[in-house]
Each structure stands twice: as structure tokens, then as C-alpha cells.
Amino acid sequence: MIKAIRNGCLVVAMGGSLVFPAMAADPEAIVDYRQGVMSSLGGNAAASAAIIMDGVDFRDNLEQHARILAEFTRDIPALFPEGSDVGDHDAREAVWSDRETFEERAAETRDAAEAFYAVVREDGGEREIMAAFRDLGQSCRACHDDFRD
């Protein structure tokens, strides 16, 4: 574990993740952060698709994209705390009113992202990678269909 004080904030690195103490944040700042994380997920999924489906010559980067997808999907519900249904966003009210289903879909996406990362990390075959990526895309779609405008 690595601890450091940066600009008055305690940062603790554990297993490659940064852990910050829970802080009361401006709900609009939470929305901004959430949108940044979700955009990052979309960008890494698009980059992965370009490699897997379109054959762009960046295969050496696929593991990094898959790792980011796995890491950033680990706790999607935390990006949608109570009170963060403010400002300009695409989250439907069902994120908060049907929390159980939302958390189930988020867990399915997390599991699919982790499976995709495992296949890529273990140098799975082209078909295996394609199948895991397809499963990840389907899990993202299932959540977006019910919880995103």
C-alpha cells in the first residue's frame, strides 16, 4: 500500500486502484465525474471494437483497453448516488427508483468486462475474444436500454 498527501488530499494506492475517503461532493460535480467515466468506458469499448472487429493494427493495446473496462465497471452504482439526479444527464429516473434491477445490470456488465479482460490477458483465441467482447456489448446495451435516455 502506498500513501501520499497531494494538495491536502490523502491518496492511498491499493492493488492498482486509488481509494479516496468518502467526501460530500456537489451533485453536479458527481454528474460531471460520472459522465467522464462513462465516456472513458465508451472510448475504450470503441477502441477495442476497432482492434477486434475492424482489424486496426493496435493489438498490443487491447489488454490495456480491456483492463480499463474491467476496472471502471467494478462499481458503476457508486457513480449514481442518491441526490445525483441533477443537471444535464442521460440517466433515467429508474436508476434510483428501480435500484435493485440497476445494480443487477451493473453487476452483469462488471462480470462481462472482467471476463473480457481475462480472455484478452490470457491470449485467448480470436473467436473467444470476439465472444467475450460481444457479451460485454450486450450487457452494456441491456443496462442502457432500461436506464439511459
Structure notes:
The protein has 149 residues and is mainly alpha-helical. Helices cover 58% and strands 9% of the residues. It has helices at residues 27-52, 62-72, 94-97, 99-121, 126-147, and strands at residues 2-6, 9-14, 17-19. A 3-stranded antiparallel beta sheet has the order 1-2-3, with no helix packed on it. A hairpin with a 2-residue loop joins strand 2 (9-14) and strand 3 (17-19). Helix 2 (62-72) packs antiparallel against helix 4. The chain is elongated.
Top keywords for this entry?
disordered N terminus; 149 residues; 5 helices; 3 strands
Task: State the major sheet.
Answer: 3 strands, antiparallel
Helix content: 55-70%
Question: What is the number of helices?
Answer: 5
Give the class from helix and strand content and strand pairing.
mainly alpha
Strand segment count:
3
Instruction: Round the Cα radius of gyration to an integer and report it.
Output: 17 Å
* Unreliable spans: 1-23
Strand order of the largest sheet: 1-2-3
Mean pLDDT figure: 88
Distance N terminus to C terminus?
40 Å
Gross morphology is elongated
Write down the secondary-structure element order.
EEEHHHHH
Strand content: 5-15%
